[in-house]
Amino acid sequence: MAGPPDAWVPDILGKPFEQLTMPLGVEGAQGELVATLVRSIPNPLLTLFAPLRDVDVLYIHGWSDYFFQRDVAQFWTSRGAHFYALDLRRYGRSLREGMTPGYIDALEDYDVDIAAALAAMGQGTPDAPSARRLVLMGHSTGGLTLTLWASRHPGRAAALVLNSPWLELQLGALGRHALAPLVEMRAKIDPRGTQPEVDFGFYTRAQEEIGSLPADPQRAIWRPDRGFPTAPGWLAAVMDGHRRIAAGIDVACPAFVLLSTHYTTPISWKESMTSTDSVLWVDDIARAATLIGHGVTIARIEGAIHDVFLSRAQPRADAFTALRRWSDGYIVHH
Predict the structure, then answer these.
(1) C-beta separation of 294 from 253 below 8 A
(2) How far is it, in rounded angstroms, from Cα 174 to Cα 281?
(3) For the whole model, what pTM was predicted?
(4) Which of 19, 141, 152, 305 has a Cα at 20 to 30 A from 48?
(5) Closest to 262 in 3D by CA, of 251, 271, 249, 273
(6) Distance CA 70, CA 40 (A)
(7) Dihedrals phi, psi of 110, to nearest 5 degrees
(8) How confident is the model over 148-182, as pLDDT tens digits?
(9) Which of 84, 71, 74, 145 is nearest to 110 (CA)?
């Protein structure tokens, strides 16, 4: 449901969500690339004295994903913030027929998508910044992308919120070091080649049992049960991001990291997958999170799955409570 450039049109999520298709000025091998910005803007009269009325939130989804979390948007808009979510190139609303879903050669390439979003949000430039504060929020691969972006653009973000960010490879640092030469070689020879399937659909099954999956008809394409096929070039880009995190970076703003308390290995189905992270080794992610800056707060949510805001009612409520308390201290009063 795309309109002409600069035209906001109704979004698939219904009111109050709107979407904007943003041509990126990049011609890929499979056609012109676009990104899509979704917004929900609260009534300014109703939020005149709200604590986050001067805040813009930019959310970025994870791998094999797109934005559909209405309650995440409502959390921010109920406190007065303007909420925006970005479906990156080749994902969700931005995926076009014939494109390789989710493919990227380098995570830095998303700087173009993010710059387009910030311009559409009226966030200004580094030399002429907006008076409105910017809060970045990312899930999984989106969390990795925004963490690295914030470190390359110090001073742009007032705060960073990470929902199970993919800050380290599931094999850990030793596994990443051992695998890196092979992945880099394959990325040079055949960047879009096929790789063994590693997603057996258990994470999707867990969400189905919880009842937290979207009912959108596009879900089968935008969020397939077993995820998008991965490619060597994409994996090399992600692992390069992990290497940078492991070396230590500084996002130059307060950061809040939400994680489950436990991990379940996704080799065969287990009921525990409905109350644990079955995608990332959360203890490794917690350790990696200490390397992204000087003001990092980590909250472990009992009973949460990989996307903590898609968990069962109690852990989801606990996650929002933790986010509210943190934002009161690090966003509202700063």
Answers:
(1) no
(2) 14
(3) 0.94
(4) 19
(5) 273
(6) 9
(7) -70, -10
(8) 999 999 999 999 999 999 999 876 666 666 766 66
(9) 145
**Structure-block tokens of residue 223:** 């969020």
Radius of gyration (C-alpha) of the chain in whole angstroms: 19
Position of tokens 């698939």? 12
Token pair in block for residue 200: 């057996």
Q: Are 134 and 252 in contact (CB under 8 A)?
A: no
Q: Which residues of 110-128 are buried (b: 16+ CB within 10 A; e: fewer)?
A: bebbbbbbbebbebeeeee
Q: How confident is the model at residue 222 (pLDDT cuts 50, 70, 90)?
A: very high
Q: Which residue has the tokens 């009921």?
A: 271
Q: Is 243 exposed, middle or buried (0-12, 13-18, 19+ CB in 10 A)?
A: middle
Q: What are phi and psi of 54, to 5 degrees?
A: -105, 20
Dihedral sign from CA coordinates of 150, 319, 53, 84? positive
CA distance 114 to 86: 8
What percentage of the chain exceeds 90 in pLDDT? 78
For residue 295, pLDDT beyond 90: yes
32-68 confidence digits (pLDDT tens): 999 999 999 999 888 989 999 999 999 999 999 999 9
DSSP state of 205: H
Question: Residue 10, Cβ neighbours under 10 Å: how many?
Answer: 13
How many angstroms separate the first and last alpha carbons of the chain? 39
**Do residues 253 and 157 touch, judged by C-beta distance below 8 A?**
yes
pLDDT for position 154: 96
The runs of H, that is alpha helices, within 211-251 are 219-222, 232-247
